[in-house]
Automatic annotation (TrEMBL):
Region ranges (Disordered): 28-55, 88-134
Keywords: Membrane, Transmembrane, Transmembrane helix
Transmembrane spans: 6-26
Organism this protein belongs to: Paenibacillus sp. SYP-B3998
Basic and acidic residues: bias regions: 30-55, 88-120
Name of the protein this chain belongs to: Lipoprotein
């Protein structure tokens, strides 16, 4: 029991010495940290007054990027609007009665048929004429 008591007392003393040492030597670090934070604040304030060349260039590039994105959005809107207009026109055309279209197509088909017959007759005549000439 005596040995345990001695070990416990030594552990308590060791911890107390350790804590007091940290508080004594740790206090100096806090002062240095305060000084370094004050210096960093002063540097940040001086850089706010005069932005660096890199920051200026990055800001210009960012502004250009935003303009490009805005332009692309506008172009996409235009394309969408045009496609909607085309869709409406096609829909209107498909809604029209198909009878008027069929009559027009029949009359034009008849005219084409007569012309194609005449062309075929001419070609047959020229074929027979060339064969008899040989």
């Amino acid at each position: 029991m005596n040995l345990r008591f001695v070990v416990t007392v030594m552990a308590v003393l060791g911890l107390s010495i350790l804590l007091t040492g940290c508080s004594i030597f740790g206090g100096g670090d806090k002062a240095q940290k305060k000084e370094s934070t004050d210096q960093s604040k002063q540097k940040s304030q001086s850089t706010k007054d005069k932005p660096s060349v890199i920051n200026q260039e990055l800001k210009k590039q960012y502004d250009m990027y935003k303009e490009i994105i805005q332009y692309q959005i506008e172009q996409d809107k235009k394309v969408i609007k045009q496609s909607e207009e085309r869709y409406k026109k096609l829909k209107e055309e498909s809604d029209k009665p198909p009878k008027t279209e069929k009559k027009d197509s029949k009359s034009s088909a008849d005219g084409k048929g007569e012309k194609s017959d005449q062309k075929m007759m001419k070609s047959k005549g020229s074929d027979t004429g060339s064969s008899s000439g040989d």
